[in-house]
Structure formats: C-alpha cells, structure tokens
C-alpha cells in the first residue's frame, strides 16, 4: 500500500493542465507511473522510464488521489527528497503549490 501511495504522489509533477484526457487515460497513466516509479520508495533513484512518466504526467490525473494518507506518507519519506527526485527528472515544483492534501513548501 505504501508503494501505491508514494507512487501516486510522484505524479504531482506539475505538468500543465491538459484538456480532454479521459478517465481511462488518467487511470492508465497513473498505473504506468506507479509501476515504473515504485523502486524510489526503497531508496532507489528514478529509472529512465519513471522520469519519462514524471515528465509526461497530467496533474488532473494525480491530485484527486493526494488525500491526507498519501500526504502523510510523503512527509514520512521527506518532502525535500521527494521534490529533488521530481526535479531530478526534469520537472519543476512550484513553491506553495497545492495538490490534494499537500502543499509543497516555499
């Protein structure tokens, strides 16, 4: 379960909103990202496939899954580490960005 929670939050990659993405496409995108990025939970660096998914993710597919439990899991891992992983994949994280139940620090 921890893997699913952390994997879901890595989608919070601050991708511009894309209009017209279907619920099915969102679900597929989320599942692919979860599968490709799961190793980061155990301390691994993101793979090339994970980073590609991070860069391509649509925020409207992610934020609905960022509930208080997911936010607590990210805080346990460390928001700074999480942001560094996202930025290491080439995606910026805006200051004071709110996604679901988490706000990234300034």
TrEMBL record:
It comes from the Eukaryota. Pfam families: LTP_2. Residues 15-99 form the Bifunctional inhibitor/plant lipid transfer protein/seed storage helical domain. InterPro entries: Bifun_inhib/LTP/seed_sf, Bifunc_inhib/LTP/seed_store. Residues 1-20 form the signal peptide. Keywords: Signal. The keyword Signal applies. PANTHER family: BIFUNCTIONAL INHIBITOR/LIPID-TRANSFER PROTEIN/SEED STORAGE 2S ALBUMIN SUPERFAMILY PROTEIN (PTHR33286), BIFUNCTIONAL INHIBITOR_PLANT LIPID TRANSFER PROTEIN_SEED STORAGE HELICAL DOMAIN-CONTAINING PROTEIN (PTHR33286:SF32). This is Bifunctional inhibitor/plant lipid transfer protein/seed storage helical domain-containing protein. The lineage of its organism: Eukaryota, Viridiplantae, Streptophyta, Embryophyta, Tracheophyta.
């Amino acid at each position: 379960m921890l893997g699913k929670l952390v994997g879901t939050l890595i989608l919070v990659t601050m991708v511009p909103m894309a209009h017209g993405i279907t619920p099915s496409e969102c679900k597929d995108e989320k599942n692919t990202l979860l599968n490709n990025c799961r190793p980061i939970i155990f301390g691994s660096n993101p793979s090339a496939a994970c980073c590609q998914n991070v860069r391509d993710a649509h925020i409207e597919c992610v934020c609905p899954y960022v509930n208080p439990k997911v936010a607590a899991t990210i805080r346990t891992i460390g928001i700074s580490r999480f942001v560094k992983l996202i930025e290491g994949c080439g995606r910026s994280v805006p200051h004071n960005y709110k996604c679901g139940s988490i706000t990234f620090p300034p």
